[in-house]
Design goal:
binds flavin-adenine dinucleotide; FAD/NAD(P)-binding domain; globular; 10 helices
Length: 463
């Protein structure tokens, strides 16, 4: 498959005008989450439509860098009825393989998918149904599932505006490869999964890389003979519900652990990169035109990330021991590099030859098109396992919607099943309302208004 191959499901011309259409369920978003719900709805024979603003699964193809590969092992790709069955379950699919996996998933059940349609407004109607205005007409639905993705709007701090025009700025979602950046050194801001992997990509391409670190945790790739993900999966980590955490809302917004699946998978050890010439810094605090200022947190950030990785190994050790598993032992991680000083520092961009800044500073949501009172003070949807307080309105694909796997390939099938159960329950309740005849007709032997008449109240005693 060529690198720029996109998933294409040819829109049905008969469906191109959506005005006046009605469906039992409309799913907004045709990524893996929306498609998973569609698969379960299809299996249960529920009429529905999936609206996708671009092309199905386009996120993976259009917003990832060329060398991108999964961080999670392939065996965790378990979309409903479509678990990964390729030749390398312990490997990590590269971008084009992920696209192909999704393409085959779509082909496996032929969803009622309309591409190139953006939902622009969602409102409730007086009768409990929903009105969805799109750029191709307004349709109605009994129930709506919002599957518009966890990482929608590229987020950069406003201090970015203070960089000189001579510096090229890109968000991690726009980064493709080292060759497409201007010559010169690159400053990568952020050490979440994207920041670390992009810094590594540039480092491997021979670029001088400066990396502004944050507090993101780290996890080792392998430990005691297996991928840590395999151990953690056996330990039930990935199916643990969010309600088991006392700080559930905080958990939902925490940064992911950094590690890579590149070249069969390995650790990302920033200290090793530093030994090899990468310039590590504390957090980016401030930009004066021409100068970037970092805080004194580098040592704390590196130590913190390592402590989390070692803590995970501790829990794997405890599991191995408790289960009596015969696993090889392994030396623990030893820091190969330490920062020279714990001081704030400033870098002159021109003097350092920094020509590009990559903002690996995350994403936000934009749900303003949903005109319903279901959001918290930060504009984040409130829900229980994806079920909102508005009957018939659901979310799917949110990070930690219910489990670690909710916003990932591994857990979205369980969430889709759960939500479709709720959708079916809601349908049953609605349909039952229209079936008054099921309860029979008022009795003519004991008329309704005779309840107070002792001659008519049954059963009567013989005495
Ligand atoms: C850099 C990165 C690396 C990741 N690595 C992994 C990994 O290794 N393993 C893993 O399991 N997960 C990983 N994830 C997380 C997750 O699997 C992906 O983010 C995935 O794309 C989420 O799927 P989704 O269907 O929820 O959302 P998306 O894939 O974002 O799909 C949402 C869709 O909704 C459409 N849409 C949005 N608004 C509208 C609208 N108003 N009307 C109509 N359509 C709309 C969009 O066009 C999009 O196609 C990674 C995420 C990122 C960002």
């Amino acid at each position: 498959m060529s690198p720029d191959t996109h998933l294409r499901v040819v829109p049905d011309p008969a469906r191109s005008e959506l005005d006046g259409e009605h469906r039992s369920v409309v799913v907004v978003g045709g990524g893996q989450a929306g498609l998973s719900v569609s698969r379960v709805l299809t299996d249960r024979g529920i009429d529905h439509l999936v609206l996708e603003a671009q092309t199905a699964g386009h996120e993976w193809n259009d917003r990832r860098w060329d060398a991108f590969c999964l961080v999670t092992p392939n065996w965790q790709c378990a979309l409903p009825g479509f678990a990964y069955d390729g030749p390398d379950p312990d490997g990590f699919m590269v971008r084009d393989e992920i696209t192909e996996y999704l393409e085959k998933f779509v082909a496996s059940f032929d969803p009622p998918l309309v591409e190139g349609v953006r939902a622009e407004s969602l409102r409730a109607r007086g009768d409990g149904t929903f009105s969805l205005r799109t750029d191709r007409g307004t349709l109605t639905a009994d129930q709506v599932v919002v599957a518009t993705g966890p990482y929608q709007v590229a987020r950069t701090p406003r201090m970015a505006e203070r960089l000189p025009d001579s510096v090229t700025q890109v968000h991690s979602s726009q980064y493709r490869n080292a060759e497409s950046l201007p010559e010169g050194a690159v400053l990568v801001v952020g050490t979440g999964q994207s920041g670390c992997q992009i810094a590594e990509d540039l480092h491997l391409a021979g670029r001088t890389v400066h990396l502004a670190t944050g507090t993101a945790p780290r996890v080792a790739r392998f430990y005691r003979g297996r991928d840590c993900v395999a151990w953690l999966s056996d330990m039930g980590t990935y199916t643990k519900g969010i309600d088991a955490f006392p700080d559930a809302e905080a958990v939902r917004h925490k940064t992911n652990h950094y590690v890579t699946g590149r070249d069969g998978g390995r650790d990302i050890d920033l200290r090793k990169f530093a030994l090899e010439g990468m310039r590590l810094h504390g957090r980016l605090h401030r930009i004066d035109p021409g100068t970037v200022h970092f805080g004194p947190e580098l040592r704390a950030n590196l130590d913190g990330a390592d402590a989390v990785a070692e803590g995970i190994k501790d829990s794997i050790d405890a599991w191995i021991e408790a289960q009596g598993i015969d696993a090889p032992t392994e030396e623990r991680h030893a820091p190969v590099w330490e920062p020279e000083a714990d001081e704030a520092e400033a870098l002159d961009l021109a003097a350092e030859g920094i020509t590009t800044v990559i903002w690996a500073t995350g994403y936000g949501r934009d749900d303003r098109w949903i005109e319903l009172p279901i959001f918290d003070g930060r504009g984040y949807p409130t829900h229980q396992r994806g079920v909102t307080s508005r009957p018939g309105l659901y979310f799917v694909g949110l990070p930690w919607q219910y489990t670690w796997g909710s916003g990932r390939f591994s857990g979205v099938a369980a969430d889709a099943e759960y939500l479709v159960d709720r959708i079916v329950d809601t349908r049953r309740r609605t349909v039952a309302d229209g079936l008054h005849w099921l309860a029979g007709t008022p009795s003519s032997t004991f008329p309704h208004d005779s309840a107070d008449d002792p001659d008519w109240v049954a059963p009567r005693s013989a005495s």
